[in-house]
Write the structure tokens for this entry.
Amino acid sequence: MNSANTTPQPLLEVKNLKVYFPIEKGIIVRKRIGWLKAVDDVSFAVNEGEAVGLVGESGCGKSTTALAIAHLQKITDGHILFEGRDLSAMPAGKLYAERRNFQMVFQDPYSSLDPRMTAFDTIAEPLRIQVRRGTMALSEAEIRDKVLDLMDKAGLSRTFSNRYPHEFSGGQRQRIGIARALALSPKLVIADEPVSALDVSIQSQILNLMKDLQNELGLTYLFIAHNLAVVEYFCRRIVVMYLGTIAEIAPSEMLYSEPLHPYTQALLSAVPIPDPPRERQRSRILLKGDVPSPSAERQGCPFKERCASAMAICATQRPDLLEARPGHQVACHLYGQKGNTDGNHH
């Protein structure tokens, strides 16, 4: 099932992923009246050693995509492949061992830590669980050495090991979350808006830490964010989502210098430029209307109601994600859809 001619083979492949939530009504007898399509036919790949950003407005489905990849959210349809192995078809026991390879750093460093566990026990917990399950053989002394080493790597003083979450600042808590994610030596770290809950001054410290760890440990990141300046700094390639679908995928420099999708163009026009004369000269692209409800029945392009370039075909045919230029994919009828005869969507 691996894609042909990919060098190197992607570490992670997401193929036609769908996550739908039932919409029900009734108090005693619950009746399904529709579906909320949080993620609707999403496909992309992450190569080993790269940092890929997943961006879009709040509610576009990026966090749901991350949770589905981490198997913290049940998927409706599609496939998630890790090193070519299809996780979506894997029995629970085998999947449990596989999950060591991908770990999550969560958005909120306050709610993602157990208030009753010390920093040491929080970081040690993944190791102890694997030992209990028989998938790792480590003594308590080895676990202790590993945890203290992880605290060093995450920039936490070893003297903090017996402190509880309420005794740490937000940035320190996120460092504990990062150390916990690295405890099982994962190949992929899924970071769900890891700096959005932190002060701006702390954000750069955490981003630099994550970059240093990537270089030191050879990590691969899927980095979810809505702050495009953060993503430009951190990620080599960017996936833009809109209303549960992918609008555009491109290398960072290409996307920022020449965005193709009208939605990406509008997103980037809202990012301030730290150069007052240039900032004054450029024009903002203001989108009309609001983001449609993900529960509404959709036909055609998801962006059609808000797009200044919408054409007749946009109302009836959903555009495929096609390569407009080498390494740059876009789902937009402006760039020719070859009659949409070989689309991936249903």
About this structure: The longest strand covers residues 31-46. The longest helix spans residues 200-217. The chain has a mean pLDDT of 88.
